TrEMBL record:
Protein's organism: Pseudomonas petrae
PANTHER family for this protein: LIPOPOLYSACCHARIDE BIOSYNTHESIS PROTEIN PA4999-RELATED, TEICHURONIC ACID BIOSYNTHESIS PROTEIN TUAE
Record-given protein name: O-antigen ligase family protein
Topology in membrane: Multi-pass membrane protein
Keyword Cell cycle on entry: no
UniProt keyword terms in alphabetical order: Ligase, Membrane, Transmembrane, Transmembrane helix
InterPro entries documented for this protein: O-antigen_ligase-rel_domated (IPR007016), WaaL-like (IPR051533)
Length: 486
């Protein structure tokens, strides 16, 4: 392994691990900056490496036509948007995520199993570090002598425990890979311990979207043949082990030590919508008013409401901001990719080759994330967007196409790199423009509306600024205290 490869791998590791393990970077705004840094890093690799056009990675002619149509619809939506600059920011963000996926897919095809091993080590290290942090915090709580144990304090690295849950929805399926692929008993035991510990943290977070995502993944994987059912079996065993350890740590042991557990996970497991009905209703009204092109990318955040700057529902969000035609085309693209992967897994369901087992875990990760996006902001939060790009790119990179992709055209190669460069440059401009003033912007919001931030691009994500103000004065009364969506 060359020094150059090790250097780039180490830099990529740092950029992906730092924002969720180092306390100084554990907020939404820092994770957004790190996301942009990772996209820039991937762009540099592409600019100084071999170029591969998107038609080589997405060879279907129909997919290419749909993609071009989506771009045309997006630019029309931006033109009619109230704040085109913010609308273009959202488009640039989506383009950077897609570009990142294609770069990862391209590198996987070039490096083969070496990149699988690199990304797999990254997942293991990252989840292990978070488990160590959780365990250290728990040990400190039990030995501190305080009469209470706040579980929220244990879930560091994210500005909201739901964002932690989104990350776990991506990684819980991936941690089952060694249980499917490794035959050495000791290695398999340690892999099961890590997966069980990861479930302990997931249970303590009480994020209902994670339960929904994993249930959706299990339902689909149960239809994927032998290896899919093995994946479900290992996850169920890990859930049982994790639930047992959770009961010991947060119920049995605290009762023996006379410690009161605060923010207990069971308190969050309810059937309420947690104010989502308000934002879903707003999204629906926006869709009815502008069904063709929507209000513009990111423009749900341009209409203040007392709950959130995004609808916590991926389909509603895309439809109200980009329009119904764009939503249907995106759903077609996603369905096409999912169906192709499902068929490939079914065709190789008896295979024990590592790449086939890895495909099962990546597919489960993507299904879980998509299921959770129906009730949560998986397509909005920066770290979740990063992992969505990684998982999708990784899946594309290991996909076995039924027909040989056509030869890449030079103009297409340079064209999509130029688009990605433009997107990254614009996002860099937004970061340089806003980053120095984020604290002042947040303080102004706190003074006017009490300080409950609504994350979108930045932590304070409301973009409505008529007359130079953060929010319309006429809407100030709408910001009464409400439950944050769980």
């Amino acid at each position: 392994m060359s020094r150059k490869f090790i250097f780039f791998a180490g830099l990529f590791f740092f950029l992906l691990i730092a924002p969720v393990t180092l306390q100084v970077f554990g907020d939404h705004d820092s994770q957004r900056v790190f996301q942009l840094a990772i996209v820039l890093f991937l762009l540099m690799i592409t600019l100084f490496g071999p170029l591969v056009g998107p038609q080589k990675l997405l060879p279907l002619r129909s997919a290419q036509v749909v993609s071009i149509t989506l771009v045309a619809l997006a630019f029309n939506s931006i033109t009619l948007a109230h704040q085109p600059a913010w609308a273009f920011t959202e488009l640039a963000l989506i383009a950077s995520c897609i570009g990142s996926s294609l770069i990862i897919a391209q590198r996987r095809r070039g490096l083969g199993h070496r990149l699988d091993r690199l990304l797999w080590i990254l997942v293991i290290i990252l989840c292990t570090l978070k488990c160590v942090q959780f365990g250290a915090g728990l040990l400190a709580a039990f030995t501190s002598g305080f009469p209470t144990l706040d579980t929220d304090i244990l879930l560091e690295g994210f500005s909201n425990k739901r964002f932690y849950g989104q990350f776990q929805t991506f990684t819980l399926p991936l941690l089952a890979f060694p249980l499917l692929a490794i035959t050495r008993p000791m290695a398999k035991k340690w892999a099961f311990v890590l997966l069980s510990c990861w479930w302990v943290i997931a249970i303590s977070g009480g994020t209902r979207g994670t339960w929904m995502g994993m249930a959706g993944a299990a339902a689909v994987l149960a239809l994927c043949g032998i290896q899919g059912r093995r994946w479900v079996g290992w996850q169920m065993l890990a859930v049982l082990a994790g639930a047992t350890v959770f009961w010991l740590l947060f119920s049995f042991l605290p009762s023996k030590l006379d410690i009161e557990v605060v923010n207990f996970a069971g308190d969050r497991l309810s059937t309420s919508l947690s104010a989502r009905e308000i934002i879903w209703h707003q999204a629906w009204e926006m869709i009815k008013e502008r069904p063709l092109l929507g209000f513009g990318p990111m423009h749900f955040a341009d209409i203040p409401n007392p709950v959130a700057a995004h609808p916590h529902q991926a389909i509603l969000q895309w439809a109200c901001e980009w329009g119904i035609p764009s939503t249907l085309l995106v759903m077609w693209l996603v369905s096409k990719g999912l169906w192709a992967t499902f068929r490939l897994i079914r065709a190789n369901h008896r295979s024990t080759e590592p790449v086939d087992l890895l495909r099962v875990c990546l597919f489960a990760s993507l299904i879980g994330a998509l299921a959770q996006s129906m009730v949560d902001g998986v397509i909005v939060m920066p770290y979740s967007q990063l992992w969505l790009a990684i998982v999708v790119g990784w899946l594309i990179g290991i996909h076995e196409f039924s027909t040989e992709p056509p030869a890449a055209r030079a103009i297409a190669q340079k064209g999509w790199v130029a688009i990605l460069t433009l997107a990254v440059a614009y996002l860099g401009y937004i970061a340089v423009r806003d980053a120095p003033n984020l604290e002042a912007r947040e303080q102004a919001y706190i003074q006017e509306h009490g300080g409950r931030f609504q994350p979108r691009f930045w932590m304070q994500g409301v973009i409505a600024k008529p007359a130079g103000r953060l929010l319309e004065q006429t809407n100030a009364d709408n910001f009464a205290p409400l439950a944050t969506p769980k």
